[in-house]
UniProtKB/TrEMBL annotation:
<keyword id="KW-1015">Disulfide bond</keyword>
<dbReference type="GO" id="GO:0008061">
    <property type="term" value="F:chitin binding"/>
</dbReference>
<feature type="region of interest" description="Disordered">
    <location>
        <begin position="953"/>
        <end position="978"/>
    </location>
</feature>
<dbReference type="InterPro" id="IPR003961">
    <property type="entry name" value="FN3_dom"/>
</dbReference>
<feature type="signal peptide">
    <location>
        <begin position="1"/>
        <end position="20"/>
    </location>
</feature>
<keyword id="KW-0732">Signal</keyword>
<feature type="domain" description="Fibronectin type-III">
    <location>
        <begin position="624"/>
        <end position="720"/>
    </location>
</feature>
<dbReference type="InterPro" id="IPR048997">
    <property type="entry name" value="Stonustoxin-like_helical"/>
</dbReference>
<dbReference type="Pfam" id="PF25815">
    <property type="entry name" value="CTHRC1_C"/>
</dbReference>
<dbReference type="InterPro" id="IPR036383">
    <property type="entry name" value="TSP1_rpt_sf"/>
</dbReference>
<dbReference type="InterPro" id="IPR036116">
    <property type="entry name" value="FN3_sf"/>
</dbReference>
<dbReference type="InterPro" id="IPR036508">
    <property type="entry name" value="Chitin-bd_dom_sf"/>
</dbReference>
<dbReference type="Pfam" id="PF00090">
    <property type="entry name" value="TSP_1"/>
</dbReference>
<dbReference type="Pfam" id="PF21109">
    <property type="entry name" value="Stonustoxin_helical"/>
</dbReference>
<feature type="domain" description="Fibronectin type-III">
    <location>
        <begin position="826"/>
        <end position="929"/>
    </location>
</feature>
<dbReference type="Pfam" id="PF00041">
    <property type="entry name" value="fn3"/>
</dbReference>
<dbReference type="InterPro" id="IPR052090">
    <property type="entry name" value="Cytolytic_pore-forming_toxin"/>
</dbReference>
Amino acid sequence: MVKLFIFLLVLIAEKIAVNGLPESLTGGLKDKRSAFFRKEIQNDEEQTKCAPGIKRFSSLDERKYYSCEEGNGYAVLKTCPGNQLYWPQKEICYQPDEDETQGGQDVRVRRASNQPANNKGRKATIIKRKLLRSDVSLGEFYDAKNDQFLSGVSLWSMEELEKYRKRRFARPSTNYQFDSGKTEDSRMNLMDIDASLKLSFMGGLIEVSGSAQYVRQSDVLTTDETFTLAYKSTSFYNVLPVTAVKNFPKQCDNKQATHVVSKVVYGQNAYYFFKRSVSRKEKKEEIAGSLKVLVKAIPAFSIEGSATVKVEGEEKRFRESVKVRFNGDFKLPGGFPATFEEAVKSFKKLQDYTAQPPDYVNAVPVEVQLTPIQDFCDATDTILVSIGDSLTQKTAEMLSHFNVLSMEINTLLDSGPAFEYPVIRENLNLYKIKLNSKLLKIKEKLQTLLPDIRAGKEGAKELNNLLVENNESPFEFVKSEAFLNSRSLEISALNLLTDGFNEYSLKNFRVADFKQPTRAQIMMNYHHVVVLDVNILQSKQITQKFLQNEKINSSFWYKNDTKASELGTQKKLFKKFLEANQNSNKFGYLISINLRDEYQPIRVQAKRSGVADSLDFIIPDVRQIGKPKVTFVSYDHFKISVTKPNNTWVTHFFVEYWPIIDDSEESKTSLKFAFSQQNTQNVTITNLNYLTTYEFRIVHVTEFGISPKGEKVSVTTKPSSEPTVLKFQSSESSLKISWSEPVYQANGIKIKDYRVVLKDSVGQVVADQQVQYVTNIKFDNLNAVTKYIVTVKAIAEFIRKDSTNTTKKIKEYSHPATLIAYTATNPLNPNLFQANADYYSVTLDLGKSNITQVPRVTGYVVRYSLMDSTGRNIKPGTSRTQSFPGNNDPKKIIGLASGFTYGLEVQEITTVGKSIFSSPVFIVRTDPRVTNGGYSQWTSWSVCNRICGPGQQTRSRTCTNPEPSNGGTNCESLGRSSQTKNCNLKSCFETNIQECSWRAYVEQSSGLIKECTFNKKRSTTSLLVSVKTSVRIHEDPCSYCCARYYVTFNGHECSPVPIDQAITFESRKYDWIPFTIRGFCKLNNYSGNIKVGLNVGQCGSKASIDPDTGNGDFVTSSIIIEEVENVKLYIL
């Protein structure tokens, strides 16, 4: 009756409140129910936001609930229809049983389960739960509001418990499970922990012990791959019946207890937690797969006695890299396993340590059944409100997210850049401190809020508000994930930036941030330093803004493809530049990681020692070297064309070349050249061997180091020089080409074949022929007046072994000798103007030339000859010629004898040669007059036809004064037309010459520089000495510095006239001065070996400073000695 009365009062109070009656009429009607939801009524006017993913949650009123399905994200308080009640856990309205609505009591006062009681009585309140601790006893009290066992508090004494305890021996079970999860949430799932207990554990209400300590693995990083092997066994269980007589019935009044431990399941659990760190060079998927295969194979391993797991190679190294942590209810002799092999051994022996019948000594509690205390006591139902499934899930998910964020921030702090760069470490530590602080506050609130909700003191709205608050904070998972992802990208980018730089092996390189002292060390130790400034580090301000929920500019450099690509390009260029100059004593290199500069994230600077300002430096790019073009190859040299790069810092270049001998560069030669103002520059590499394959490459030179080496190019010198003395003879339809054999030929090779190619003026091949044992060829059926290009190559055939040591016959061509030849013109038909003929001359009209293009006609030659009596044949020796300009004017021939018949022939003179004469096509008859011939004056004597030994000189005269004509006599009766005489009867002198050359640098200020031994063959000869070299001064510049260079013979200067030269230095320090010394020295009465030396000394009294000198740097220096006949020396 009392309960019914209270219930009626509650209904009346609610009715009055709804109809708005004056407070004076409602005073004194407040009951226990209003106390439960007074606060809720007071806050009705305050809008409550709904947490994401929450559709409904309970209120303090058993018939009311909050709905999030309407209200634009805000909770709306609603009432279940009719007499339905709200089911908090399932978040639905339901029709209660009759006993649930009687007595005016809230259902949560009468039920201690997570489901409505569909059957009468109180038995539907039993809870089954996995244990997270092993010190639990049968009959203990349990506080379901706080998820805590009340140790030592019970209704029974130990003796009574032992009397009523019933042990059941179900079939013992043993099984093992596998799991790859690395989060706290995944470990609890493997342990079969229900959602409510999971929430209490994650909220900090529960401490764990025994095998349950497996759930805490605080040192796991996202870069780790994990795999768990779980071993679970059950042995027996003890049961306490509800009919057991109580020793301590007064404990039924315990306000904290909600349940009694009525069943305890005994067994043993063990968890092997395997962890393998994954380096940045490894693939996580591959490591995860290997770890899974490795662990899942453990149950199948067979190990007998003290045997070990025998593996070798890569698998052994992998197993040794796996770390093991053991959490279990076993007492293992020798301690817990720490290595994979120890884990295998202990797992195989777990069965030996598993509790065995009949006593099951080692078994521990692993699971309990909790019965509501009212089933053992005649007490009022305990208040126990269940929390909705979605709220439980979302709250546990929030706490799990904190666990993940903690794992991610620890991973970032464990990275190399976090150790190396204080700014990154400060940012991450600041976030971690605030994250831990936030999690601690949430757990502190949950430790009060969860028990209060379950006790009915607080509504689920407060838990919803906690989720809302976290969702609006910077620690909302998506926000924090994005922030940490940006930090991870920043660290990954820094890792990529520094990848490949082994600073410990390069003394002239460092990576440092703007706070580290290594930057200053590089600057102090090297005169020339190239700095790659990477202005990308985020300051502490970015984390502070994030923690204050301020908007952060997301345009980070590592998210900008253009900037990231530019940095990647500069990094590659810098790395190659560094490698080309590694361990240099002159050049230093530094990557400086600085605070973010949005406008200039990347800058390359060049710094000189003692100069405060820096210059923007352009790193030489090997791609700008390109592939040098070989423009010419000869038997002893080749020419290349080098392109000037678009980089003003590149001022010089090296040409490195070497003969290919077993792929070695030991005989490499380097020549340095300065870039000219031209875009391309031609370089000749000389002094090479015949028929040898060389490799060469280009290296650019800057003030701050050399570029990476350019692409190798191979070139093979020719077996011989080209054919010489190319000549041609032409007709209007043919060319006869002749040549001489090459002057220089490789040892063991005799040229006997030649390839001759004839091309027209546009490059089309007209003929391509190979000849043997001859040095001439004739091409017929050609076009008249046509330009042809002739190339002749000498062919060398020889035997050579390839890389596989197989003998092969090789054919190589010399460089071509080229000749431009022209076929002759067609003959013309001259015309005679009869009216202009007289006794002694005739005027010819030669007509228009048939040559309309190149070559151009420059003149004509008319040959006129006396004809015999038949008028058809020319009399021998009677031909004369007369030349005319190449215009169309009539051509007058004079000096003809009258009374004779003449035949006329015409020849065209062109810019490329002469045509053949035309056939006699015209006959002229003149009046006869006879003239006898006479000699002209003698010519001068010709030059002797021999330089040494017996020779001859000649002179001649002609029968042209006058010429015989019209049947006159010639000059034979007047004597011979030529004379000879002997000349130059001295003996020939044998040539004896020798050259000594060097390229090595010689630093010498006095004494002997270089000496050459010469074999003088005669005692009556002199020596002609020529010295060619270059020198420079090493002292500071001066107005007059001088050095005397002189030649000695067996240590003595030539007398009376020395061979010497004084060199004055008025230029800057280190400037090179080339010079040559040349002179004769009489060495009569001496033959045999003589040492000829180049020396340096003082200039005498005129020298103000004696400078240091050097010679032979990048040019070839030489001493050339020639034995010559004695010369007369005049001393002035």
